[in-house]
Amino acid sequence: MGRRFLRLSHTGRRSGRTFHVVLEVVRYDRTTGEATVISGFGETADWLRNLRAGGRVEVDFGRGPSPAAYRVLGLDEAEATYAAYERRNLLIAPLVRWTLTALLGWTYDGSRAARRRMVAELPLVALRLAAHRTARPPQSSGPPAT
Question: pTM for the whole thing?
Answer without folding.
Answer: 0.86
